[in-house]
Amino acid sequence: MEHLQKNNRINNIISLPFIGILIVPFLFLDICVEIYHRLCFPLYGIPIVDRSKYLIFDRYKLDYLNNIQKTNCTYCAYINGLLKYITEIGAQTEIYWCSIKHSKKDAIYPEHQKDFLEYGDAATFSNKYKQNLTNLKNKHE
After folding, report:
1. In Å, how far are 17, 24, 65, 69, 75 from 21, measured between CA atoms?
2. What whole-number distance in Å separates Cα of residue 36 and Cα of residue 33?
């Protein structure tokens, strides 16, 4: 067992630079998406996504974690919360710009696409598109 713990520590130390360096592109992505979100959503009439529902930092308060574990938990909370937050911004953007299902039937699609217009359904496109926009704008009221 001690041998496994020693190996895990070595593996964690080896992987640290590869995990740590990812903070740079994630911070850049965060800044770029936030600029888009705060500038464009008001122009589109889409409600701003509540960032605090996605980025939750609370594990560092747990007394039974050491400082390294608290740091790791905070890092993971940021990255995973950011990805969920950006996914929601992307979903609302997709609803606004193109709420049409894809043609591929056996793919895995996100929940927000369930009400999208069927691929190739030109006859109902205009009405369904307007309905989706109305639903999006009323989503947070």
Report:
1. 6, 6, 23, 18, 12
2. 5
The CA distance from 62 to 114, in Å, is 39
User: How confident is the model over 32-91, as pLDDT tens digits?
Assistant: 999 999 999 999 999 999 999 999 999 999 999 999 899 999 999 999 999 999 999 999
Which stretches of 1-141 are DSSP H helices?
2-20, 23-44, 67-97, 125-138
| Cα distances (angstroms) measured from residue 25 to each of 21, 36, 68, 79 | 8, 16, 22, 11
User: Which pTM was predicted?
Assistant: 0.84
140 in Cβ contact with 45 (< 8 Å) = no
Cα distance between residue 2 and residue 68, in whole Å: 20
Task: Please state, in angstroms and rounded to a whole number, the distance separating the CA atoms of residues 122 and 124.
Answer: 6
Cα 80 to Cα 18: distance, rounded to the nearest angstrom: 17
Bridge partners of residue 100, in order along the sequence? 117
